[in-house]
Every structure is written in structure tokens, then in C-alpha cells.
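Example record for the data management plan.
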Amino acid sequence: MAPIALITGASEGIGKATVLLFANKGYDLVLAARHSDRLAIVAQDIQRLDRQALVVPTDVKEPDQVKNLIDKAIEHYGAIDVLVNNAGIYVSGPVESFSLEEWHHAIDTNLCGYIHTIHAVLPHMLARRQGAIVNVSSIGGKVPIPYLVPYTATKFGVAGMTEAMHAELKPKGIHVCGIYPNIIKTSFTERAIFTGYDEADARSRKQQLEEILHTPFVEKPEDVAKAIWEGIKHQKAEVVVGSANFAQTAYKLFPGVVQWLSRQTFKK
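Corresponding structural encoding:
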């Protein structure tokens, strides 16, 4: 019987690349995201690889929907071997410009969304004394980034949760891994939150990021998918992806310089 991987945010970007890689590695998949039409297209790609795909449209902010996702996956396949938490949202702007609603939207998606899936799947994995949980964080979970404060807060939360879970669950047969990429060339700006001192400032922040995404040095979703696979295959506690290694090392050696450069990059 093929192993089973459940991947959130599976309809595009990192999630889609991870789905296709796992299908090529012999996994059957559970696909979760909000847009059922996009998930259906990914499911067809998986079926062309002679693997099974169960599509369960899910908003990870909603615990009841997440419970339904886990229940349907176990009912259909009998087990979940790997959970990849990937669904998230990017948030950019001066910290004072965010509304409480925007703060909660970032936290509910990027942090609570991961908590919801883990809470729902953990009893199943503990009963089997096996499984793997991969949390896709960000270099923003290792290096504090000004003007991305709500985003950084959620990613530091994911990083801390992941490290603590790794320490606690390893003796119980469950492997927990954190993935830390830099900016990745995807369409995430479509659903991102951009605020500013005025509307023009918010638009310029989005335009700046889109320009960065078109530069050749920005890594691709497939790079993150490979890191996820490496984390599972080699039982790594964390994998820092590509250029994020440079950012992490630079911050450890020269924190003041990195903070100054980050302020100059993101303040306008």
C-alpha cells in the first residue's frame, strides 16, 4: 500500500510542487486548499502519474473544516503518514498601519491553521506511533524582518512550535521538521495583505515585491518541495532553503547590519 501525504495550500506554488514531487516518489495524496477548481486541476496531474488524489476543499482557519479534512482522509485511505503544513499568507507594511482584523487574519492563517491540522491529526499518529509533520515556515521565522511584523510574528511562532514538537514527539515515533525558505517565485501576492501610510504606499510595496519576484536569483517552489522531501527522507529537524542560509548566517554574524539593510529595503 502506498504511503499517504496530506498537503495544505496544495492548489498552487510550493504546495503544488510538493504534491507532484510526492506523487513521483510513490505517495497517494490528500489535497487541501480553499479553491476546489484549482485542486481539481492538480488532482488530474497526480492521476496522470498513476497515483490517487483525494480533494477536500478546506479553509485552515476553520477548525471544523480541518477536522472534516482529517476525518475524510483517514476514512478514504485508512492512514495519514505525512502532514505538510504549507497554507499561508504574506503580510507587508508599517506595523502601525495594520488593523486588528489584519493581524488576526495573518495569525489565524499562518499559525492557527497549522495548529488546527496538527491538533486534528496528532491523535491518529500517536495511536500508530509513527508519522511525519512538516511545517513550512520562512526565513522570517529565523530573522526578524521590519515592515513584515505580523508575518514575522506568525513565522517565529511556527518555528518555536516546530522545534518544541520535534523535541517532544521524536521519542513517540513522530518526526517533526521545519522548512525555512526565502522569498519564492509564486503567485502569493494575489492573496497577500499590503498596507501603508496611504494607498499609494501600499501599492508601491506590492509592486516592489513583484519586481523582486521577477529577478533570476529568486528560488522556485520546486526548491522548497525538494527541501521538504529531504527533511522527511533524512529525518532532519530543519532545512534552510538556498539563499535563506546566507540571510541566517549574516544575521548571526552582523545582526545590526542586517536589520539596517532590512529597514532600508522594506520601509518604502
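Summary line stored alongside the record: The first strand starts at residue 4 and ends at 8.
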